[in-house]
Protein: DUF1559 domain-containing protein
Organism: Paludisphaera borealis
Amino acid sequence: MSAHFKNDPEFNDAVPMPISGRGFTLAEILVLVGIIALLIALLLPLNRGGARHAARRAQCVNNLKGIALALHNYEQEHKALPPAYTVDAQGNPLHSWRTLILPYLEQKSLYQTIDLTKPWNDPANAKALATSLPIFRCPVVGPGNTTTYLANTAPNGCLIPGQPRNLAEITDGTTSTLMVIEAGEEHAVPWMAPVDADESLVLSLGSDAKLPHTGGVNACFVDGHVQFLKASTPAKLLRGLISIAGGEEIPGDW
């Protein structure tokens, strides 16, 4: 029955009336169903796409948590964080910190195939270089043997080229000192490459940049926690997060 009749206090005494000529025709009903179907078809991909992106962002966070844990396990064994990259006798770059933490990422067998006495891009290391490691790759960016996870290697940053970093040197606090940040695909490098993020790169990850996630990037800090850095984060605050011992005041609600 019509909802109008059910709400009418005189419904029981009313005489049902025939449907008027203003009712929907079959053609109109088919058009209406077609419009609804079209709307559903348009909306569902958007919902699926949003869900996919949320899942990829969550996987990106997990990647960075795994990298942070590996860095801490390296520190536990070696009593210091790894260098940004190792160097030869002449000071030339050899291997990235990403290579050095492979045994702590359940990649010991891959690590053992790498000749650490020769540069990362030497033919002797070509097979390892071609290996794709999902933990070093944000799922939003896609597959490949490159990485968008770059360490904070600013002059006053976390990892130092050619030498380890003692945690005691990080006097600004481990919860507010940036260790690894993700960059956009335009900054992707081969995962074995001794290339990371300097201050200018970190400061460039603003609202005008091509970011891997809507509104910002993921980053992990020295204490191991992962946080979303908004594209609107002020440059002054970013400089404070980069520094390990600058004494900058970091607000608690940033």
User: Anything to note?
Assistant: The CA atoms of residues 110 and 193 lie 16 Å apart.
